[in-house]
Specification:
Blueprint (H helix, E strand, L loop, with lengths): L1 H27 L5 H6 L5 H10 L6 H13 L13 H36 L4 H14 L3 H15 L16 H35 L2 H8 L4 H19 L1 H18 L5 H11 L2 H29 L1 H6 L1
Helix pairs in contact: 1-13, 5-6, 5-8, 5-11, 6-8, 7-8, 7-11, 8-10, 8-11, 9-10, 11-12, 11-13, 12-13
């Protein structure tokens, strides 16, 4: 187990390194010039050149990358070129919105996918199972922006139960208002991701129903549903754990769009704004933090799956 953990950790670090190189180089080919943005439209070429030199943007790319990655190892992701605010401080502030939104979205996805996926498998070939399967495929194909607008129309405009946009100025000092502002965005992301996960749960449940130990339990007197619930669901749960890393990645991608749609002051919305102003240190830090979070979640899921599933330990 220790050897496996060290191997996965090495792959995690390698993935972060490759991601940092790709992020750094990709941002350098984007159109626009932050020095021109800072200097203003009526600035002279000499002024733009002086600003670029003061920011170190005229240094060779290799030097810029080494300076940036060296700061990352020290826990310093740089500072905004426009405001001078440290990237770490901005990420910590915006994460107070994005992390709760991601957790709520994941809980909604699991709450939707697990019971409905199992029910769809148990009622396969019947109206209920067919209807749930068609609904899952339909919702999974819906763009997250369109789903968010539909939920706003229903729950915010027609029913008036939830706010359509924004986050309370008091933040988490008013937890009830904060949770209400995140509920619609979490339902939007969770519904789409839950529909995708539900199809996987259905397939895993159908596979579990056909396993010998489930059929043996049914032969000893348990109903098919009882045999599945007692002996098959642990295997289904392990299968779901194995794809949680992909679900987290999908939730982060959804959060980038949904935070802009619902005017939430999170990392996703900050990323969109910083890309538009070409604030390179901010964008670099945000993308690296999001990538690192996804890789770390995948690393923890792999370790947890291996620790829980005795078949993987025996195979090792």
């Amino acid at each position: 187990m220790i050897r496996y953990a060290l191997t996965r950790l090495a792959l995690l670090l390698l993935g972060l390194f490759v991601a940092s190189v790709l992020i750094f180089l990709t941002l350098r080919v984007l159109p626009g010039d932050i020095a021109q943005v800072i200097a203003g439209q009526n600035s002279s070429p000499e002024q733009v050149t002086a600003i670029r030199s003061s920011l170190g943007l005229d240094a060779p790319l290799a030097v810029q990358y080494v300076d940036w990655i060296g700061g990352v190892f020290r826990g310093d992701l740089g500072s905004s070129l426009l405001t001078g605010t440290p990237v770490v401080d901005e990420l910590a502030e915006k994460a107070r919105v994005t992390i709760p939104l991601g957790v709520m979205s994941l809980l909604v996805a699991l709450f939707i996918s697990f019971p409905l996926g199992v029910l769809s498998a148990l009622r396969r070939g019947r109206a209920v199972g067919t209807g749930l399967n068609v609904a899952a495929q339909t919702v999974a194909a819906v763009p997250v922006v369109w789903a968010g607008m539909m939920l706003v129309v229903v729950f915010a405009v027609w029913l008036g139960w939830l706010p359509a946009q924004g986050f309370p100025r008091a933040g988490w000092s008013d937890p009830l208002a904060a949770l209400r502002s995140l509920l619609l965005p979490a339902l939007t992301i969770g519904a789409v991701e839950g529909a995708m996960l539900m199809r996987f749960v259905r397939s895993a449940t159908l596979q579990a129903i056909g396993e010998d130990y489930v059929r043996t339990a049914a032969a000893k007197g348990l109903t098919r549903t009882g045999a599945l619930l007692r002996h098959g669901l642990p295997g289904v749960g392990l299968s779901v754990i194995s794809v949680l890393g992909l679900q987290v990645a999908g939730i982060i991608v959804g959060a980038v769009v949904i935070e802009e749609l619902f005017s939430l002051p999170g990392i996703g919305r900050m990323l969109v704004e910083d890309v538009s102003t070409r604030d390179l240190p901010m964008v670099q830090g945000e993308l690296l933090a999001l990538t690192g979070f996804v890789l770390i979640v995948g690393f923890l899921v792999d370790l947890g799956h291996r620790m829980i599933d005795p078949r993987l330990r025996e195979a090792a």
